Structures are given as C-alpha cells and as structure tokens.
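TICKET: design request
STATUS: open
ATTACHED STRUCTURE:
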C-alpha cells in the first residue's frame, strides 16, 4: 500500500515537472519565433514580457479591473506582448498558431469574467495598451480610434476638436474601446443615436492569417459580425472608424435620489411607463442600492434617477412636468454644462474635476465584481419590486448595485438583424445586477450564489424564450465552450442565442468562413462549425 502511494506521489511530481518543462519550452519557442520573424528583433523584444521579466507582474496587473481574477491561483500567461505596430500583432498570431498558444486580447481589461486576460490552457496576452491613438476629423464628423484607447481618451480627443460633437459610447472612462464597440456599447445618448457599434463606418482587423483588412477587403459579412458579435472570435480589431454625432453646446444633467420612505417603489414603477417613450433627447437611468435609513440603525432602499438631456434646463423642465411630475424635480436639481463635462458628471466625478481625468487609465479603488443582466419588456409590478427589495435586504445585498438603462427611441428603430446586437424594439430597459466588493474584502462564493438567487427571482419579470443577455456583460453561468475548442453549435447556442438571438446562426456562419480552425476562441467565443454541423477546432 505504501509502495503504491509512493509511486503515485512520484508520478505526480514527475508530471508536474514535465508540465513545467513543456510550458517553458512553449514559451521559449514562442518568444524565439517572435524575435526571428520580426523586422526589428530589438524593437519587439522590448515589448515582450515573460514571468522572468521584472515588469511582468506590473504589466499583467495594470489592466486587471476585477480582483476575482487577480489571485495566486488565477492562471497566468506565458508571455505578454504590448505591440506598438500592426506588424507585431501579425507576427504574434502566426507564432501562436505555430506553437499552439491561445490568444487573449486585452483592450481595457473590463471583461466581467476576465476572458481578456485569463485562460485555463497555455496562452499569451496581446495587450493593446500602446495602440490608442485617436484622430478626429471635424469636417467629416468622423474619427479613427485605435482599439487600445479608452472611452475617456476618445471623449477627450473629440472635445479637443469640437464642443458640439460627441460619440454614443459608455459611461465608465477606463473601458477599452476595442471590446466596448465589439459587443455593442451602450451609453447615455443611446436613445438618440443608438449604440457605439451602430455608429461604426469602417474598421481595421488582423485575421487568422495575419492579413490586415478594412471594410472593403473584409467584406460586409465580417464587418457586420465585428460590430456587436463581441471580441475575441474573428480576429484582432486594431482600429475603428466612427461617425461622430451632433450635440448642443449646453446639456442638462440631474441626479435625484429617493428612498422607500420617499415613495421610491412608486416612482420606479411609474418610471417604467415613460422611460422608453419620452423625448429621445432625454435619458433617465436609475441606480438602486441599499443605504442607511434616516432612522438610526435601520436600512432602506435608495433609487437614484440620473439624467442627461441634450438641451437646456428651460427645455427639460416642461418635459419632466409633463411626463414624470411624480419625481418632483425642481430646477435647483439640474445643472447645465457641456457634453464633455457631462461625461465626468455621469461617471461620478466630483464637481470641478479637470477633463484630464478622462485620460487617466489607472484604475480607481480595486474591486471584485460579479454581474448579470436582463431585458425587461413589460413593467414590473410594485409587488415584484418589493420582492427585489427583500433580496437587497439580505446580508449580501449590502454589496449590491442594480442599474437600469432605458431603450426606445433610436434603439427601437434599428432592426434586430442590422448588427449582431439584437435587443431592439420591444425592450423597455435592461436591468443589470452587480455585487461589488472593495479590495481587502474576500469575494466568497456566497456572493456569486446571491446573484444567482436574485437572477432566479427575476425570471418571471424579464424576457423569455430566450432569456436575453448582453455579450459585453459576460456571464459564464449561461454556458461555455469546451477548452479544446471543439464545441458544437447546439452546445454554444445555449448561451449564444441569449446574447444574439437569431443573429447567432449568422455569426457562426461568418466565424466558420474567416476562422475555420477556431484559432480565436475563449469560453464564450463564436464556434466554427462545418456545413454538416460537425465540430471544428483543435
């Protein structure tokens, strides 16, 4: 018995060293391939970070926004590459294919499941942080933005050139443009102008063969797929050409909070009936949290109504009086400012913050986060909302935030099949559930379990058949691909139809055409499937 145990232990030790040796060989051969195939070996060698490099950990950690994936147990890349030129990406793709490494493409590092920098098979990170130039052409109201730029850097660059041009992208300024647009990208002017992806007019992508393609050379199928089909499936998007949109020189914002004692339940219930139907220049989102009550020692629920109006307060006030008088908005609640200043306000920066804050890529306080998202097609009853408050009053609910974003307007005018993002007409709003813990607080499984219980509770009140989800709010609870990449259409459709509805079939068709070997893959990438339905990939 002891002999068998000793032999088993020895086998494990030998296997461990074999894996280490194999991993070392892979990474050394991969690095050698990169330098030997680069036009300037010295140049690219300065952009390669291996675990032996003193800067490896700082480069890896810098764009990790979710502490759930910054632990000693989290799988680490064998190499990180921070390209400064398109040719570096071309070489990386070719060498990765030759040496069996999976690629993870990181723009801003905000993937909720860490899929842009974590894998359970040998992988390298292609970190696009050095590819972040923005070129704005005011005359044509267009811009080219590289995929490594952040939303904040894009907004800042637009405002440098014009006070009356904007772009309908997201709220958080440190989110990377590459992944944001790839999945759709919603923001505060979506009811007027649609999603970020709806306003893309050209792109540059490097495909599985290392070719650099623009809209004309990639063809309309691939151009369709990359504007909402989510990142990491079709190639490496290196730049977007976007259409800028007109905004007035002065906009109006407000942030009004109400607790349960101030009729928050009634107000949120009423909000559902007007949020997607009011003037397209007006967006009112809500943020729901548990807070301390005015009664000592008690807790209550607070609903914050946060708004951006593309116009002045004298135009906004009559709209609010007509459509949502119950909120009790007064002019002193409102502030007038430029559109670019409103991006700081909505992102939660304090009054007087310099616009330079939009250029700051360094993360604020580190957090651990788990997110889920639903689409609401019929108003939730007050009884249903009260059941939601009950969940927020559970112990784990202290760390929860719930965000609602109204649709309607332009979002209802764009057909479901126009881009892969299908959540258009018929949706009043989407509702996102977050559990957020600050650094130093352990993110135990009970918080994940709480989000799952909340998600289960919400089932009767949200979309059905499928229960729709948003690809930029990655949720591996919905299902995932096999590690080896040989996922069937049927298996992938379990999560794929939730994200993309009927567009999933076309996405699989495009994937199979442009990447038949399934090189670009991750836990929820679009699978490559043969015409007969056989599995592809290796």
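STATUS: resolved
RESOLUTION: sequence designed for all positions
ATTACHED SEQUENCE:
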């Amino acid at each position: 018995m002891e002999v068998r145990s000793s032999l088993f232990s020895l086998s494990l030790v030998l296997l461990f060293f074999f894996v280490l040796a194999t991993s070392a060989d892979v990474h050394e051969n991969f690095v050698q391939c990169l330098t030997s195939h680069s036009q300037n070996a010295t140049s690219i060698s300065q952009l390669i970070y291996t675990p032996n490099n003193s800067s490896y950990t700082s480069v890896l950690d810098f764009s990790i926004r979710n502490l759930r994936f910054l632990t000693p147990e989290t799988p680490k890349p064998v190499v990180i590459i921070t390209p400064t030129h398109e040719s570096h990406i071309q070489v990386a793709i070719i060498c990765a294919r030759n040496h069996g490494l999976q690629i993870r493409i990181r723009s801003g590092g905000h993937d909720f499941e860490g899929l842009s920098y974590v894998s359970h098979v040998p992988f390298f990170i292609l970190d696009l942080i050095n590819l972040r130039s923005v070129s704005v052409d005011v005359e044509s109201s267009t811009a080219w933005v590289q995929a490594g730029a952040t939303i904040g850097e894009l907004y800042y660059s637009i405002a440098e050139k014009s006070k009356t041009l904007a772009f309908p992208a997201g709220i958080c300024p440190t989110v990377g443009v590459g992944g944001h647009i790839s999945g759709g990208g919603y923001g505060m002017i979506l009811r007027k102008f649609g999603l970020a992806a709806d306003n893309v007019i050209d792109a540059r992508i490097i495909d599985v063969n290392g070719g650099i393609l623009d809209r004309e050379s990639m063809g309309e199928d691939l151009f369709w797929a990359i504007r909402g089909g989510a990142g990491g499936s079709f190639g490496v998007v290196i730049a977007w050409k976007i259409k800028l949109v007109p905004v007035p020189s002065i906009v109006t914002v407000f942030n009004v909070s109400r607790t349960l004692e101030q009729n928050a339940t009634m107000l949120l219930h009423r909000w559902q009936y007007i949020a997607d139907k009011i003037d397209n220049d007006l967006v009112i989102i809500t943020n729901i949290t548990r807070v301390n009550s005015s009664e000592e020692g008690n807790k209550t629920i607070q609903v914050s109504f946060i708004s951006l109006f593309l116009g002045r307060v004298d135009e906004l006030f009559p709209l609010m009086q007509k459509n949502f008088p119950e909120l009790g908005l007064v002019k002193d609640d409102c502030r007038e400012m430029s559109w670019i200043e409103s991006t700081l306000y909505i992102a939660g920066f304090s009054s007087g913050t310099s616009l330079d804050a939009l250029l700051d890529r360094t993360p604020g306080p580190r957090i651990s986060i788990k997110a889920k998202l639903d689409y609401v097609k019929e108003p939730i009853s007050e009884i249903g909302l009260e059941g939601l408050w009950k969940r927020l009053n559970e112990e784990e609910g202290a760390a929860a935030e719930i965000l609602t974003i109204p649709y309607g307007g332009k979002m209802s005018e764009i057909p479901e099949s126009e881009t892969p993002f299908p959540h258009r007409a018929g949706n009043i709003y989407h509702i996102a559930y977050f559990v957020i813990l600050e650094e130093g607080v352990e993110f135990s499984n009970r918080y994940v379990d709480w989000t799952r219980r909340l998600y289960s509770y919400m089932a009767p009140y949200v979309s059905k058949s499928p229960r729709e989800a948003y690809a930029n709010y990655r949720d591996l609870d919905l299902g995932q691909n096999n590690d080896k990449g040989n996922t069937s259409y049927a298996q992938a459709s379990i999560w794929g139809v939730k994200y993309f509805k009927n567009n999933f079939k076309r996405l699989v068709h495009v994937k199979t055409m442009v990447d038949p070997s399934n090189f670009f893959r991750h836990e929820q990438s679009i699978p490559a499937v043969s015409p007969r339905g056989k599995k592809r990939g290796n």
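CLOSING REMARK: The chain has a mean pLDDT of 93. Residues 365 and 438 are 7 Å apart (CA to CA).
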